Amino acid sequence: MNQWIIETEHLDYGFRKDEKILDDINLRVPQGSVYGFLGPNGAGKTTTLRLLLGLLRSENPNIRLLGRQMPGSRIDILRRTGSLIEQPSLYLHLTGLENLEVFRRAYECPASRVGEVLRITRLSDAAHKRTRAYSLGMKQRLGIAIALLHDPEVLIMDEPTNGLDPNGIIEIRELIRDLNRQEGKTVLVSSHLLTEVEKLATHVGIIHKGKLLFQGTLAELQNFQYRRALLEIEVDNVTRAEQILSGRFSVSVNGGSTIHVGHTKPDEAALINHMLVGGGVGVSRLSATGNDLEKLFLDIISA
Ligand SMILES: Nc1ncnc2c1ncn2[C@@H]1O[C@H](COP(=O)(O)OP(=O)(O)O)[C@@H](O)[C@H]1O
Ligand SMILES: [Mg+2]
């Protein structure tokens, strides 16, 4: 079996003929991963996830889940895939247990699954409460419980922590971690918050304006951020500054009295400053300048 549980090949999408909401998306979700699908609002996350699940139709989809083609093998795929894309549609006048029982019968799952998914989502104690009285976080967990009834191998969730209070966010995060580590599920989860994804994901894909700007492990992402970091430094002697730094860093003279220094680790700004001053170069300004990806990160972080 293929190591990619979810993959797309040059996936494009537009709601109209002339628009490209998604542009050449090559998603690779490894088996056993928690894949954080990160991007600011409007980036194309929900559209991508809806395409994966066959909720939107693309003319030339190039989408495979569990080694099978979507939408051709939709039934087979959905039998092994759970999802929570919008707010869960719950019967508010019924208890959590009764809600699960409705979906269990519809999906023809064994009766024992209800207790199991209640346990997994830590809703056993609230099982006999009407869902009208559930907090938003509990409703969300019940939605995940419903998605788990048929014991899927893959779980796809669209911003499951949206609108939750800090406690609710932590509960969902812990649940996703348990689902991955204890229940062995591969999880694809979208978010517009870098900090959230960093706490949870083993792999990350960053989408911006319909393009996948980065894809890799969490370690690769952090490494990538640092590698691309650039310092802009204003000095009183450009030639000397270049001499001091160029053995160790990539230096470019940016006209006048400014140089750009590429560095790899976040704490190297202090070292660079120290080297310059120690070499007799006056430093009047030292600032981090972003490349596009870093500006995007700032957007994501501050969203
Ligand atoms: N049903 C739709 N019809 C037309 N445009 C849409 C529709 N849904 C989303 N869009 C547009 O597609 C882009 C991506 O949206 P979406 O996938 O919802 O982004 P995200 O989930 O990352 O916030 C946005 O510009 C949005 O306005
Ligand atoms: Mg969305």
Automatic annotation (TrEMBL):
Leader sequence residues: none
SUPFAM superfamilies in the record: P-loop containing nucleoside triphosphate hydrolases
InterPro entries with a match to the protein in the record: AAA+_ATPase (IPR003593), ABC_transporter-like_ATP-bd (IPR003439), ABC_transporter-like_CS (IPR017871), P-loop_NTPase (IPR027417)
Domain ABC transporter per the UniProt entry, residue ranges: 6-234
Family annotation (SMART domains): AAA
UniProt entry tagged with the keyword rRNA-binding: no
Keywords: ATP-binding, Nucleotide-binding, Transport
GO molecular function term, any single one: ATP hydrolysis activity
Family named by the database record: Belongs to the ABC transporter superfamily.
Protein's name according to its UniProt entry: ABC-2 type transport system ATP-binding protein
Organism (species): Dyadobacter jiangsuensis
